[in-house]
Amino acid sequence: xxxxxxxxxxxxxxxxxxxxxxxxxxxxxxxxxxxxxxxxxxxxxxxxxxxxxxxxxxxxxxxxxxxxxxxxxxxxxxxxxxxxxxxxxxxxxxxxxxxxxxxxxxxxxxxxxxxxxxxxxxxxxxxxxxxxxxxxxxxxxxxxxxxxxxxxxxxxxxxxxxxxxxxxxxxxxxxxxxxxxxxxxxxxxxxxxxxxxxxxxxxxxxxxxxxxxxxxxxxxxxxxxxxxxxxxxxxxxxxxxxxxxxxxxxxxxxxxxxxxxxxxxxxxxxxxxxxxxxxxxxxxxxxxxxxxxxxxxxx
Length: 299
What we know:
Blueprint lengths: L2 H20 L2 H7 L4 H27 L8 H22 L4 H8 L2 H13 L5 H24 L2 H24 L4 H6 L2 H14 L6 H21 L6 H6 L2 H15 L5 H35 L3
Helix pairs in contact: 1-11, 1-13, 2-11, 3-4, 3-10, 3-11, 4-8, 4-10, 5-8, 5-13, 5-14, 6-8, 7-8, 7-14
């Protein structure tokens, strides 16, 4: 098997693990029963501390000091992930879990558009079709927010998604290892949270859940998802956030008995159907290209 195929499979595995682990992020945040900025401070601080410990152990074990942020481009990526974290946390407390994760799935559309504009990776016709239906799904969810009082949270969720897609696109363009840059990006939300908590006080009823989330879940998930763009295209990486879209509402439904509204379910079904259909099309297209390449260059 050629190296590009091995790299692609490696990217799929790493990014898939990251997306699966990330699906428990929101339920853990909800279990912490904390105020927005206090939760953000504890989550970001724990993630940053664990990342530094991992970096130190790695450097000592290998005898090489691994670069945390690869130049100015790394600073930009860290800043984009940091902004995404801030808006994500605000959205968690201002809209329903189902609304949030379905809107986060729109990450794929933003990633495809940004890759087209800045990387000249023009989406296929099938991608445009999937994006059209996803726009309809997100539109239904956002419209539902007008009557449910979640409009602000839905818009903030869209902004979080845009920052995340931007980080993926910049990482893809740089072709550099940004696994630690994404985690170092927690310095930004942590700094903002420190200021806000100093004004309003610290309040987290069950900090153990947030500490576990920051130490294990977000640390591993951020590292995996930030590594994915080295091997996969931006839209491919973004599609692994579909795992959170599908699983997070299920976890919340089971733990908190929070049933999504009918419009949210309808919009979510449209988004998931479009994403799954597009993913199946991509896999079939990749297999077809591999077969054609084998015919042209027999061993």
